[in-house]
Design brief:
29% of the residues are buried. The protein has helices at 3-28, 30-36, 86-89, 113-118, 129-138, 156-165, 178-190, 228-234, 248-259; strands at 56-60, 66-70, 76-79, 82-85, 96-99, 105-109, 146-150, 170-175, 197-201, 214-219, 235-245, 263-269, 276-277, 284-285, 295-301. It is an alpha/beta fold. It is 27% helix and 22% strand. The protein folds into two domains: 3-111, Roll (Vcp-like ATPase, Chain A, domain 2); 114-301, Vaccinia Virus protein VP39 (Rossmann fold, 3-Layer(aba) Sandwich). The strands form four sheets. A seven-stranded mixed sheet has the order 9-8-7-10-11-15-12, with helices on both faces. A four-stranded antiparallel sheet has the order 2-1-6-5. A two-stranded antiparallel sheet has the order 3-4. The longest helix is centred in the N-terminal third of the chain and has 26 residues, at 3-28. The protein is elongated.
Length: 352
């Protein structure tokens, strides 16, 4: 049991009583009550650390059920455990406990990117935060970059990409379905990320409609292998490519397409996460885990050589360096009877 859960259980009765006594006062002057409930001095000029009107907030109850909503003066947060006036939260520091009219406690925190992805309105499966965080790293997504995604779905990855490229970057989201674009646009507007996303309603198999080449491309669609050449056409030389598919036969199809196009440094990976119950005296894995959500395929855009690959002593642009035969000090041949052969425990990374 976490610290704040234990604190709540030990103080629930007295706190609930105090809350009920203050309901009438809250209704008359909630802002005054808000400040009298703060147990420490707060710098009123520090607006970044306190809850403000129009902020997005995450309220978490004692059973870890989270609610995402926007703070709006004059409104109230409704639950089946009573309601909480928004005015009673405005001015409090993030991480404060607030109580409903029925005495139930909620921890109010600023939502993170993972929270926003989990709570977006969806009409299709979204890319989980465990995958989207790794995708951002593998695609080297940074502020100011131009990133193209094909297939926005409900906007889970779009949200993560827009958060990473802001304030000077741009996400181009090309999607064939207008209903997916409409939903993703609403989700971006809800979290104020819509200025960093440009939506393109078009069939990606006919090419990507961007004005100049991009730094990274990610394909999230049923048959990404059909768009690999189109992706390479708009990707900068040396740029980053990624895709996610749920089944192994889809992985095989996209690998064939990548090998037939100007891509190299290809990787296929899978991420699984296991959460633990955060109880120090009874630490153990939770009964459920997020296991397979999809296979991740990554590659880099390369420049294929023009003409035949040279076969002299100088390694060609796509060939590994030739290994010099190992010199035997005792006149005996190396392992396997082949001069210069690598032993089983030798470092063969140069051949990868």
């Amino acid at each position: 049991m976490s610290y704040w859960h234990e604190w709540l259980n030990s103080n629930r009765a007295c706190e609930a009583g105090r809350v009920h006594e203050k309901i009438a006062t809250l209704l008359e002057d909630t802002r005054a009550v808000t400040h009298t409930n703060i147990d420490r001095d707060i710098d009123t000029n520090d607006t970044n650390d306190t809850i403000k009107d129009q902020d997005l907030a995450l309220a978490v109850d004692t059973k870890d059920k989270a609610h995402l909503f926007k703070i709006e003066a004059g409104r109230r947060f409704e639950t089946h455990h009573g309601y909480i006036l928004h005015d009673a939260m405005i001015g409090k520091p993030w991480g404060s406990l607030v109580y409903s009219t029925l005495g139930h406690a909620y921890l109010v925190v600023r939502p993170g990117t993972a929270d926003l992805i989990r709570h977006i309105k969806r009409s299709s499966q979204v890319i989980f935060p465990k995958d989207s965080a790794y995708i951002l790293m593998r695609l080297n997504v940074k502020p100011g970059m131009r990133v193209l995604e094909s297939g926005c779905g409900s906007g889970g990855l779009t949200l993560a990409l827009a958060t990473a490229v802001m304030p000077s970057g741009r996400v181009y989201s090309q999607e064939i379905r207008e209903d997916f674009i409409a939903l993703t646009r609403k989700n971006m507007q809800r979290v104020s990320l819509d200025p960093y996303v440009e939506f393109i309603n078009a069939d990606s198999t006919n090419g990507f409609l961007v004005d100049k080449k991009v730094d990274a491309v990610f394909l999230d669609m049923p048959a990404p292998e059909t768009c690999v050449p189109q992706a390479r056409a708009v990707l900068k030389d040396g740029g980053f490519f990624g895709s996610l598919v749920p089944t192994t036969n889809q992985v095989q199809n996209i690998l064939r397409a990548l090998n037939a196009t100007a891509f190299g440094l290809i990787d296929v990976e899978e991420i699984m996460t296991r959460r633990y119950k955060p109880v120090a005296d009874r630490l153990r894995p939770q009964d459920r885990m997020i296991a397979h959500t999809g296979f991740l395929i990554f590659a880099r855009a390369i420049v294929k050589p023009l003409g035949p690959v040279p076969h002299d002593n100088t390694p060609g642009p796509l060939e590994p360096a030739q290994l010099e035969p190992a010199q035997s000090t005792d006149g005996a041949e190396d392992a396997g009877g082949v001069p210069g052969a690598l032993n089983d425990d030798a470092d063969a990374s140069a051949l990868d």
